[in-house]
Write a structure and sequence with these properties.
Organism: Lophiotrema nucula
Strand order of the largest sheet: 1-2
Structural class: mainly alpha
Protein name: Cell division protein Cdc14
Mean pLDDT: 80
Largest sheet: 2 strands, antiparallel
Strand content: under 5%
CATH topology: Leucine-rich Repeat Variant
Low-confidence stretches: 39-61, 227-254, 256-260
Order of helices and strands: HHEHEHHHHHHHHHHHHH
Keywords: Cell cycle, Cell division
Distance between the termini: 32 Å
Number of helices: 16
CATH class: Mainly Alpha
Number of domains: 1
Radius of gyration: 21 Å
Shape: globular
Length: 304
C-alpha cells in the first residue's frame, strides 16, 4: 500500500493535469478496494467455461459495499488506518494540498481550462469526503486555518454550483463530531460565507437547499469527541477485540499536531443557544430554523 500511495502522491503533486487526474483515480481505486467487496461471479452455463474470454463474457461482476462492522477485520482497511496515523502517509492531507494547488492552477495557468480544473477539483473533493469518513481522526487537519480557508474559498460565488455543493459536503464531514473544527470555522467568518452565499441572488436553488441543510446541521447540539478510554459505538468497531477497536477514540496528534484530547473538545463546545445567537448576526429568523429542526427532527440522533 505504501508503494501505491507513494506513486499517487507523486502524481497529485505534479503540475501536469493528466498526472493529477491519474493520481486522484489511484486514490479513488484504493478507497473502492477497501470499501467494496467483489460479488461472486455467476457463470452462464458450465459448458461456456472454455477460456478466460468466455468466462468474462458469461459472468456478471458486481461490487457491493462492505458492512461497516466488518471493516475492522479487513486487512486492507487495517493497513490503511495504520498508515493514516502518520503524517507522511496521511492521504487527506495530501489531497487537501493538491486541492489548494488546483485552485491556484485554475486562476493562473493558461494551459488549464476552467472545465479541466473544475473536474479535478470535484474529484479531489469526492476523495476527500471519503477519506474523512473512513478515517475520522484526519478531520482534525481542518482545525488549522489553512485547510479550513481552503473549503471556504471553494464556496466563493465564482465557483460553479457543483463545486459549491461538493465543498459543502466536505465541510459537513470535516465538522462532524469535531467541535474544535467548528470553532475554527466560526473564527474564520464561516457563517458569514455561508449566509452571504445563501442570500446571493445568483446562487442556484440546488446550492441554497444544501446551504439550508448545512445550517440545520450547524444548529444541532454538539457532543465532545470520546475520550481515549471510552468505548466507541458510533463507528461500528465496538465488537472487535483488536487494537483497531479504539482507533477512532485515540488522540490524533500525529495528524494535527495538537493534543486533540477530550478535555480540549469539551472546552470548545457551544450550546445550541450560543450557536443560534452567532448565526442570528448574519441571518434573520434563526428561531424558526431551530423550531423547525426540533419539530421535524431532521437530524434525529445526530450530534455535530
Amino acid at each position: 500500500m505504501e508503494a501505491l500511495l507513494s506513486l499517487a502522491f507523486d502524481n497529485i503533486a505534479s503540475k501536469d493535469t493528466q498526472k493529477i487526474r491519474k493520481g486522484l483515480r489511484q486514490i479513488e481505486g484504493m478507497l473502492a478496494q477497501i470499501c467494496l467487496s467483489s460479488g461472486k461471479s455467476k457463470p452462464s452455463t458450465p459448458q461456456h467455461r472454455r477460456n478466460a474470454s468466455t468466462i468474462n463474457l458469461g459472468e456478471q461482476q458486481q461490487s457491493t459495499p462492505k458492512k461497516l462492522g466488518t471493516l475492522a477485520e479487513d486487512p486492507a482497511f487495517r493497513e490503511f488506518f495504520r498508515l493514516q496515523e502518520g503524517f507522511e502517509w496521511n492521504v487527506a492531507t495530501h489531497v487537501a494540498d493538491c486541492l489548494n494547488r488546483l485552485l491556484g492552477m485554475s486562476s493562473t495557468d493558461s494551459c488549464t481550462t476552467d472545465n479541466q480544473a473544475d473536474i479535478l477539483i470535484l474529484s479531489a473533493l469526492s476523495n476527500l469526503q471519503g477519506l474523512l469518513l473512513l478515517h475520522a481522526p484526519s478531520r482534525t487537519i481542518f482545525g488549522r486555518e489553512i485547510y479550513m480557508n481552503l473549503l471556504l474559498d471553494l464556496l466563493d460565488p465564482y465557483n460553479c454550483p457543483a463545486i459549491q455543493s461538493s465543498a459543502l459536503l466536505v465541510l459537513v464531514t470535516a465538522l462532524l463530531a469535531t467541535p474544535q473544527n467548528t470553532r475554527t470555522f466560526e473564527n474564520m467568518d464561516g457563517l458569514l460565507t455561508i449566509t452571504s452565499l445563501f442570500k446571493d441572488d445568483e446562487t442556484t436553488q440546488t446550492v441554497k437547499l444544501k446551504l439550508l441543510e448545512f445550517l440545520y446541521f450547524y444548529l444541532m447540539p454538539e457532543a465532545p469527541v470520546p475520550s481515549m478510554s471510552a468505548p466507541n459505538t458510533a463507528m461500528g468497531f465496538q465488537r472487535s477485540p483488536s487494537k483497531l477497536a479504539g482507533a477512532f477514540d485515540r488522540r490524533s496528534s500525529t495528524v494535527s499536531g495538537d493534543d486533540g484530547g477530550g478535555a480540549a473538545a469539551r472546552k470548545s463546545i457551544r450550546t445550541q443557544e450560543e450557536k443560534q445567537h452567532l448565526l442570528g448576526k448574519y441571518l434573520n429568523n434563526v428561531e424558526a430554523l431551530v423550531q423547525d429542526l426540533q419539530e421535524t427532527a431532521s437530524f434525529a440522533g445526530v450530534t455535530c
